[in-house]
Amino acid sequence: MTRVKRGTTKNKRRKNILKKTKGYRNAKKSKKKQAKEAIMHAGSHAFNDRRKKKNVFRRLWQVNINAALRKEGSTYSKFIGDLKKKKIEVDRKILAQIARENPDTFKRILEEVK
User: How is 54-93 classified by DSSP, letter by letter?
Assistant: First the structure.
């Protein structure tokens, strides 16, 4: 059986790991073991935060809708409750966008719900 030198494979693997940690601080950017661990943590945070982002945006839409409703003398919880009673299905993203860009249209929706 012929002898296989693994230096090139090992170096390539190390180089690829260190390429991913470019911009990290201290030893995480230059030492293979710490860099690999940093990549694992970064990957798990990225995965979780892609899901958290959806919650963050939903909260932002709720705040925008509530701000527009307060100007009209109503509240978010009453408005959403009335929307559900009237069986009007408009999602919060669209409502927030309408409230921000077309206040007149938003007033008409509010009157329809009341």
Answer: HHHHHHHHHHHHHHHHHHTT--HHHHHHHHHHTT----HH
Mind listing the pLDDT tens digit for each residue in 19-64? 999 999 999 999 999 999 999 999 999 999 999 999 999 999 999 9
Domains, the chain, ranges and CATH? 8-113 (1.10.1900.20)
Tokens 């190390």 appear where? 14
For the beta carbon of residue 41, count every other beta carbon within 10 angstroms. Answer: 10
Asked if 4 and 11 count as a contact pair (C-beta separation under 8 A), the reply is no
Structure tokens at 20: 């991913």
This prediction has a pTM of 0.70
